Amino acid sequence: MKVIKIDKAQWTKGLDALREGYRLYGPVKEKEIACFRELADGQTPDSEIKNTRLSPKSLVFPQSEAMMAYSLDKNDDEQGICKEVPKDYSPRAVLGIRPCDAKAMVLVRMNFDNGDYRDPYWLNLYEATTFVGMACDNPCSTCFCTTAGCGPYHEEGLDLLLSDQGDHYLAKVLSDKGQALAQKAGWTTEADGQPMESGKATAEGKITAAVETDRLRALDTLALHGADFWEDISFSCINCGTCTFVCPTCWCFDIQDEVYGKKGVRMRNWDSCMFPIFTVHTTGHNPRDTKLQRLRQRFMHKLKYFVDKYDKGIMCVGCGRCVQQCPVNIDIRKVSHAMNSLDAENFCAVQGK
Amino acid sequence: MKNLLEHMGVEADRLHFSWISSAESTKFVKVVTEITEKVKAIGPNQHFVKQAAKVA
Amino acid sequence: MTAYTEKIREIAQRLLKECKVEMVIGFRAGTMPMMNEPCFIRKPDQADQLVWDSNCGINLANYLTNRKEGKIGIVAKGCDSRNIVNHILENKIQRDQVVVIGVPCLGMIDKRKITRETEGEILAVTETDGKVSVQTAGGETTFDKADVLQSNCRVCTHRNPVIHDEMAGDPVAEQTDVDPYADVKAIEAMSTEDKWNFFDELLSPCIRCYACRNACPLCYCPTCFVDESKPQWVGKSQDPLDIRTFHFLRAYHCAGRCTDCGACERACPVGINMRVLTKKLNKDCLEQYGWEAGLSLDSRPALDIYNPNDPDEFIK
Questions:
Q1: Taking the CB of residue C120, how many other CB atoms lie within 10 A of it?
Q2: Helices (H), A39-185
Q3: What DSSP character marks residue C97?
Q4: Cβ-defined contact of A245 to C63 (cutoff 8 Å)
Q5: Would an 8 Å CB–CB cutoff place C40 in contact with chain A?
Q6: What is the pLDDT of residues C143-190, one digit of tens each?
Q7: At what angle do helices C192-203 and C240-253 cross, to 10 degrees?
Q8: Which residue, A35, A36, A233, C203, is most buried by CB atoms nearer than 10 A?
Q9: Which chain C residues in 8-37 lie under 8 Å from chain B, judged by CB atoms?
């Protein structure tokens, strides 16, 4: 894999060159809140930001997205016909996405692009995007990527991986898209990638937090489902959508129409399995109408059902956002420990003992 | 409600309350005329109007 | 406030041992700096889990209702206790179902303020004698607790629990030289256009997670107005008007009931201070009806009853 050296003095010049071919996005501070936004002319991604409040999933999966529009005007020839809303899928680049968030997109893609279904909205945005990652040399104390299937220098989902070397970046080219971007920016000086290898080892050593997942695959689903720790864990949950909204691997959405007199739009909005009405049926029946059921479902999905279905590890990349932002401090590391250490041998799924 | 709307930036004269019985037709006409004049004086509502959802 | 921890544990243990309650709701230590997790205990030997410090800003009265237990013990600071009174007045729980372990409160610290004023990631926060020490990889900073109080605690005039069956400490002096409505007055002084823009700015980071609504003890409607679909009252998207309508109407539903506990602001993942809406209503209630929520079990809330002297200059 080719490694390129980018002098920091050349960084802004490179970005300006890129603007001719790409819409640029990166982490910036908006009134103290770190988030991913489109970079204005002359704006550079903020390299001080470690972890954004919300994940960059909204770049390919906006929180509210109009999908189709239609006219309800009887005089209109096209009345009642749903038409796709024109979108801008011109090439774009995300500069400074962290490896965990990029890996998360790969996990989410398993849902939006499988043998049965392809989500055109998500895929069009994803495929139009070149992901330029920034390796984490100073992970947060809440990061546990190394035990969640990725790491501070992980390459899955990235087209280029940058590593800050002080007065320059080293950039590992990981795909044709990455190569094309580097070319466009005028970043062509090849360099030795060894500092990235040692940087990786150092960064991985700095990760202090962890999730325990080694027994999850083998544990009996019913035993986990019927375990007695769910009541204790779910008590404090207030069923808000914070964990699901900040999580880069959560993908649930709700589709609805909004009608304004003679026209309407069909849109989708992020939805959350923590919301009480998430599973309400048209009959009014709700299979998950208690807090315990919803919370249990969320953690079972992340740490068990996904593991069983895809055999690619847990549905979590260890970004730590849910841990940082849950208003009542429910911690996936604690839950994972409880699940992973369940003594299932002495458990009867029927009698609950 | 009136105070909260005003607090939020909707002009106070856009919301009016009146207690009118169906037998008080004169009062009804008077109140409606007054309200119409007051609202017209402020002009069309620019802010608290949703034409279509402003979404991606 | 660590002395409270010992007393709370002792009381909880005693209540459970003597079977006065089936569970005690309190806080246990969190896994993150400045965070505690609401929890419950059922056995006397679990009492050692309970803690109390200046990070107990979430309102535990939120967990009190719709429970199947017959008798519940609950740790409650000043504002929480007023919400318990409110719950009783609104028939969500009976007085004899609750055993209130009252905590005279000296204020909760504002984790966002501390984070803002600290360089680098915060690893640990400890409090001793009115000083808050914040540890980062780069060293330690100390703040005066008075400078980093939550904004509602800074102007609190009801620090002592208004009802209690047990007390975790001696009553503290109530603050008298504070203006609880200074921020509301500042907004009232703005022009209409400025007010509109102020709220536009304030609510722009909202992600409709509903943490504010769910952390609020007053928000207990089986189906919230934002979740209604037949008919749908408010859009569920990120449209700024829909976001504004949600906050505005939620505040309105809390009119005359809000105790300014600050749980909403504390729970919000993007730190929105939506209390400027509820406080405006609290101020109006106080000025027009002489009413503050949850102070006494004996009087009905102002918006619950009619008094011929009720102000009516707004209606023709």
A1: 14
A2: 99-112, 120-128, 176-185
A3: G
A4: no
A5: yes
A6: 999 999 999 999 999 999 999 999 999 999 999 989 999 999 999 999
A7: 100
A8: A36
A9: none
